[in-house]
User: Fold these one by one.
Assistant:
Number 1:
Amino acid sequence: MKNHIPFYLILILISISCTDSLEKNNITPEYVIVIHGGAGNTQQKDLSEEKQKEYLKHLNNALSIGEEILASNGTCIEAIEKTINYLEDCPLFNAGKGAVFNHKGQNEMDASIMQGWDLNAGAVAGVRYIKNPISAAIQIMNNSEHVMMSGIGASEFAKQENLEIVDSSYFFTNDRWNSLQNILKSEKYGTVGCVVLDKYGNLAAGTSTGGMTNKKFNRIGDSPIIGAGTYANNETCAVSATGHGEYFIRYTVAHDISALMEYKGLSLKQASDLVINQKLKNAGGNGGIIAVDKNGNISMTFNTNMMFRAYTKSTGEKELGIFK
Ligand code: ASP
C-alpha cells in the first residue's frame, strides 16, 4: 500500500502556513483601531508629566469613541470620522481647532480618507473655514466625482454638504500663535490619524492636519495626498502618516508600505520598519506611521523621539504611548 500523507495532516499544515503571517496571535480580531496624534523630536524631559497625562487622556477619549462605534457594528469610516472629529476639536493636536499657523498667521488645513475595499478616496487641501476637514474629505469621497478639492472651492462644497463653516478666528489658539512667534526653535508635529479594521473585514485610513508651522506659499503636505500620508487597501493594510510631509510625498510612504506587502510579501512590521527606519531615516525624513493589516496586526513605527499613539482590539488588547 502506498504511503499517503493523511488528508487531515495536509489541512493542519495548510492552516499553520496561513497563520504564519500573523505576527502576534493567530486569531484575527473582530475589529482594531489605531490612532496617532503626531510625531516629533520633543524630549521626554521637555513635556511635563501633567501635559503627558493630558495628551494620553484625550487619546484615550478619542480611541473610546472609535471603539464604541466598531463594537456596536459601525463601519470603519464612521469610526474614523468620529475619532478624528474629536481630535480635530481638541486644541492639543495640530488639526482642526489646534491647527498650526502658516507664515502669514493663518490656519490652512489638509485631510484625507481612503477605504480599502474599492480604493475610493477623498481629500481637502489648504482649507481655512471648514471646522472638521476629515468630514469634508469623506463627503468628497462619497458625494462628488473628485478625489481632492482645495481652498475656497472645498469650503463651498462643504457648505453645500451642510458641514459646519466657521470664521478663521475659530482656529486661533495662543499656543500655536506663540510657536509661530518662536519660529521653530524645535520642530513640532501634531497631525492626527486613524486606521481601522472593522467587523466586516474592511480597512480604512484617515489623516487630518494643520500642516507645518510657518509653512509658506500655500504649501501642501503629505496628509491629503493618497499614497503619501494616507493609504488603504483591503488586500494589504491601512496607513496614516505623520512627520515632515515633503519626505513622505517624495517617498510615497503609505503606498510603499502597502506595495512591499503586496509585491514582496513582507509582513506589516517588516514593511513599515523598512520604510520608516531605513529608507526614510537614511534620507533624513522624520516621522512615523500607524497601520493595521487585514489580519488585525498593527504597526506604530516612528523614527523620531516620540509619537502620540494608541490602539485597541476587540480582544481587549490596548496600549497608549508617547515616547519610545
Ligand atoms: N505631515 C504633516 C505635513 O507635513 C505634518 C505632521 O504630520 O505633523 O503637513
Number 2:
Amino acid sequence: MEHRENFKSRIGFIMTSAGCAIGLGNVWRFPFITGQYGGAAFVLFYLVFLVILGLPIMVMEFTVGRASGKSAAKSFHALEPAGTKWHIHGYIATIGNYVLMMFYTTVAGWMFSYIFKSARGEFTSLTPDEIENVFNTMLLNPKEMVFWMGIVVLVGFVICLRGLEKGVEKASTVIMTSLLCLMLVLVVRSLTLEGASKGIAFYLKPDFSKMTSHGLGEVIFAAMGQSFFTLSIGIGSLAIFGSYIGKERALTGEAVSIIALDTFVALMAGFIIFPAVFSVPGVAPDAGPGLVYITLPHVFNIAFAHLPVLGYLFSGLFYVLLLLAALTSTISMHEIATAFIHENYRLSRQHAAIVVTVICIVL
Ligand code: PFF
C-alpha cells in the first residue's frame, strides 16, 4: 500500500487548515460586504452564523475526512452505504473547487500587481477617478491579469509538488505567521490615524436601521454566505485536512481553534480598513469589490500625504498581506484538486499537480 503522508505537528495542521480558511474572504470580501451592508449589525449576524452553522458543518466535514481517511474524491465512496449515491458530492466538490480556483487565482493576481504598483508610488499623484481608471484598465488588460494569475498558480504548484509536510504544511506555517505579524503592525498604524474613531464606531456599534435599505433578508443571506465562504465549507477542502487528524484529537476543539483564528483575521482586517477609510473626510466604505483597489489607494494618499515614504511602505505591506492570505487558500485548493486526481486516477502526486496547474491556467 502507498504510504500516506501526514502533518508533522499539530500546529502545522492548525496553520494549514486555518490558512485554507483565511484568505481573500477575510481580507478583501469581509471588509467590502461589511461596508456595503452597514457595518456592525452585519458583523453581528455573521458571527451568529459562524457559530450556529459554520462550526457544526466544519466538524461534519472533518468527521467525513477522518472517518474515511481520504479526500473528498473518495471519502463518500468509503463511507456510503452500498447502493447509495453520496459519492456524487465528490464530483460536485471538485467542480466547485475549480470554479473557485478560476476566480480566486485571478483576484490573487490583482494583489501581486498592486504590491508593485503601490510600492512604486504609482498612485501617489493620482485623483480618485484616475485611481479607479488604473483598476479598470487592469481589468481590461488580459495579458497583465493572465501573467499575475499564472504566477499565483505556479506558486501553488511548486508548494504542492513538495508534498504535504515539506510543502503545504511548511509554507502555510511560515506564511500564516508572517501574516499575523504584518496584520498587527498595520492595525496599530491604522488605529492611530487621525479620525480613526469614526471607523471604529461604524465597525463596532450596530445600527440596524442601516440594514433596512437592503432588506433584512438580503443582509442575513449575505452574512450566511460570507460565513460559509470564509470557513471554506462545502467543497471538501476541510475533509481532506480532517483525514489527517489523529483519533486522539477532538474534532470540535480543532474546529473552534480554526474558526477563532479565521474570525480574528477577518475582524483585524476591518480594524485596518475602516479606521483608514474614515480617517479621510468624504470617503465612504461602501465601494463594494473596489474597496481595497480604488478607495484604499486614495485613502493611503491622503492619510500619508505628509509622509509619502511611509505611505508606500504601508500600502505595499497591505497588499503583501492580502496576497499572503490568498496564497494559503490557493495552496489548499491546489491540494484538493491534486488529491482528487492522485486518488482517482492513480497518477503520482507530482503528475497530478502538473495536471491541475495546466487545467487551472487554461480555465
Ligand atoms: N475561505 C477562503 C477565503 O476566505 O478566502 C475561500 C476558500 C478557500 C473557500 C478554499 C473554499 C476553499 F476550499
